[in-house]
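Page 42, continued from yesterday. The earlier attempt failed because a stray header line got pasted into the input along with the sequence. Redoing it now with the clean sequence only.
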Amino acid sequence: MAASNVVVVESPAKAKTINKYLGSDYRVLASFGHVRDLESKDGAVLPDDDFAMRWEVDARAKKRIDDIADALKGAKKLILATDPDREGEAISWHLWEVLKRRKLPANIATERVVFNEITKSAVTSAMKAPRQIDTDLVDAYLARRALDYLVGFTLSPVLWRKLPGAKSAGRVQSVALRLVCEREAEIEAFRSEEYWTVDGRFLTPRGDTLSARLTRLDGKRLDKFTLGKQDDAQRAVEAARAARYTVGEIERKTKTQNPAPPFTTSTLQQEASRKLRFGASRTMQLAQKLYEGIDLGGETVGLITYMRTDSISLSQEAIGALRDMIDERFGGNYVPDKPRLYKTKAKNAQEAHEAIRPTDVTRTPDSLRHALDADLLRLYELIWKRTVACQMASALIDQAGVDLESQDKKLAFRATGSVIRFDGFLKLYFETRDDPADEEGEEGDRRLPHLIEGEEAKLDEVKPDQHFTQPPPRYTEASLVKKMEELGIGRPSTYASILKVLQDREYVRLDQRRFVPEDRGRLVTAFLETFFRRYVEYDFTAEMENELDEVSGGRADWKQVLRNFWTAFHPATEEAKQLSGVDVRQKIDEALGPHFFPPDAEGSTEGARRCTACGNGRLSLNFGRFGAFIACSNYPECRYTRPLEVRGEGGENGSEADAGDYPKELGTDPETGLPVSLRKGPYGIYVQLGEGAKGTKPKRASLMKGQEPADITLAVALRLLALPRDIGAHPETGELIQAGVGRFGPYLKLGPRYVNLTPEDNVLEIGINRAVEVIAQAGDRKGGRAGAGGGRALGDHPQDGKPITVGSGRYGPYVKHGSVYATIPKDIDPGSVTVAEAVELLAAKRAKSGDAAPAKAKAPAKAKTAKPKAAADGEAKPKAKAPAKAKAAAKPKAAKPKAAAKKADDGQKG
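This time it went through. C-alpha cells are written below.
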C-alpha cells in the first residue's frame, strides 16, 4: 500500500533519519541534491530572449525522479523538505518543475517544509507548519546561477584566446584570486626597516624583579623607529645605566572581556582552520555529517543545527537550556544576570536561521567519544564549547602599568602586567587570533610584583634588541575567508568551493597553510585587472551581492539585475576579443615586470631585463602554445628563452639559491661529519649528504611541495634527509608508525599499510597523537596505500564480471572498474555504497566522458588480448590514427565551453 505522504530531502542519510521520525503514512526519498542544471554548453542562458534558461536533467537524477514519481502514484501529498536556504529552495523548485512536466496526478497537494535541525521534535513541528515554495528565494538563485554562467562562458573563452595556459574566470573566484595576488605583490614590494628596543630588568627593595621597556629618552616619548640604528640604541643603553630610578604612579584598571557570539558558517570555517587546522572544505564536510545525524544507540540523531547560516541568534529554548547547563556544570557565578542576545550585523544575512549550535547541549563531547571519529569529535567539541561559552559570564582581567622614571624624568621604562581575576567564559573557550603577529606585545597572564609609588628601583640589567619590520602575512584559509566576508564578496556557504576552485585550477597553492599565487594565477589577475577591471573590483562585486540579496527579499526584479549587468559586461568582452596579442603582452609585461624582473634601488627593472645570451636584447613576457615564458626581443637572431621565474625572499634581489648558485653548502651533519648541500637536478631542487663512496650514491632528499630553496636551512635539510622518520608506537597495536615522502606525497606507514597525509599535516612535524587520528580516519583497509590504489573489493560488474573496488584518493572516495574511476558523491557513505550504486556512478562517468579519447580506446584494448599479435597490431594502427585526425579537426569545436561550465562556475551556493 502506497504511503499518503511522499517527503523529498537531499541526501539518503537525511532521508533515513527522517523516515524513522515519521509514521508509516510517510515515505521519505532522497533527490541526491539538484536534479537538473543549466545545459553544459554555451547558450544555456539567453540574454536576447530575456534571459531564458535551458535546463537539463542530470543523467544520475533520472532514476531518482522515476522513484519519486512512482511513489506519488496513489499518494495525496508531496512534501518538499530540502535545506532551509536559497539552494535548498531551488532544489525543491527544480524537482517540482520536473514533476509538473511529468503531469503530477491532479489530486496531489505540494507543500514546502523547512527545519533547522534534524531532530524528531524539529521535523514533526515542521510538518505541522507547511508553506509554499518561496519564489523570491528561487529568483535569487536564478539570478546568481545566470550571472555565474554568463561570466564564466563569456569571459573564460576570452582568457583562452588571449592568455594561453589560463583555465577559467569566475564572478567571485577571480576577485578572491586578486586578493591573494595583491597580498603577494605587497610582500614583494616590502622593504624591511631596522629598529631597536631597549629592555631593562629592575630589582625592588623586596628582592622582586620586573622587566620593562624604555619608552622615554631625553624627555621625549619613543616611537617605533626612534632608535633606528645600533648606535642610537647603544647611546640609550649608556644613558639608562647612568640614571637612578624610582617607581612612578601605578595605574590599575579592570577590563571586562565578553565571549564571542556563536558560530556562523564563516566564523566556523575560520576557527576550525586556526584551532583544528581543517581546510574550509573539510570543515563543511564534517559539519554536514554532524547535521545529518549520527547513530546513537540505534537511533540516528542530528547533533548540530544547519551549518549554512549567517545568523548569530539563538532560540529562546536553546538559551534557556544553555543557562541551566552552565549553572549545573560551572556554578551560578558563571551565569550572567541576563541572557546574552546576539544580532546579526550583516545586511545580507541568510534567511531566518539560527547560529550553528548543538541540537541538545546536554550531549557533551565526552559523552559522544564512543560514537564519533576523531575529526567529527574535534569539530563538535569546538561548536559545543563556543555555544556554551557565548552564554557564560564575562571574564574580569586586572591590568596594571607603571613607569620607572629617572630622577630628572627624562628617562622612563614602562612595565605592564595583567592577571585574570575571574575567568568567566575563558574557563571553557577563547577565540584565537587571525595571525600570531596580532598577539605581539600582549602580556598574557603576568602579574607585576608589589610596588610602592616613589620607592627606588635598581636597574640590574639593560640590553638592546635589534628588530626588523615584517611584511604583511600571506592569507591563510581563515584570514582569506574573513577578508572576503568583510568586503562582502561571495557568500559564506560558497567560500569552501571558491578556495578549492583556485587550487584545482592551479592558480594558487598552499604553502605552510598559507596561500601563494602561482604565476598562472598572477597572469590571469593582471589580465583581468587590465582589461576587465570593473569586474574584479571589490566594491562592484560586493554591490552585486547586495543587489542579489535585494532579489531574495522581494525588493528587486531578478531579470532587471541581469539586464543592468549584461548591458555593460557584454560590450567589454566584445572589445577584449579585438585585442591583439601584442597589446595583451605589453600590458601584462608592464604590470608584472617587477615580479619577474627584480627592480633596482631606483625601481627600474631594465637592468634585470638585459638578455644574458646576446647582451643587448631586452627580456620580456611572451606567450606560446603552452603558456607564458620569458624571451629576448632580438628573436630570431637571439633565441634565448626561459620559463617564468620569481625572485626569492632572501634579500632585495633574491637569495643565492634563487639566483641559481648550486651546489650551495648548508653546513655539516653533526652525526656523520659529512657536508650537507642544496643542489639542482633535472627533477628540481634537492638536498644531499656528502658525496658518496665510490660506486654508491649519496643520500638525497627532494624538497616537498611548497618548500622554497631560500627557506632550506641546515636543520630543515637534516630533517628531510632523516625521512622516513619514526614517530612512535601505535597505542593499541604497538606497531611502529613512520612518516615519509613517496611518489604519491607525504605518508604515514603502520606495518604494511600506507596512509596519505592531509594537506594540513606536515610530515616533518606530525606527532604520535595526530598520526593515530589520521590512520584511524583512513579506515580499516589492510595493505595498499590510501589514495594510491588498493581499496576494498565491492563485487563484480554485472556486464563483464570484472571486479569493482572502492578506494580513497587525493580527491576523495571513489569506485573503480577497470581503468574508469568515478567519484562517490558526498551524500553517499563510501562504507555503505552498493554494487548497484557503483554501477550507476560508473555509467554516469562514462556517459559524461562522452567521446573522449580514453573512453573509446578501451574496446580495442580488450580485443588485443583475444587475438593474435598480428591481428591486434593490424587493428591498432588505424585506431591510433583516427583520434589524431579527430582531435585536429575538433579544435574549434564547442568542447571547451562544455568544460568551462564547471571550470568557470564559482559554485555560488546559498
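Notes: The chain has a mean pLDDT of 81.
Reminder to self: strip header lines before submitting.
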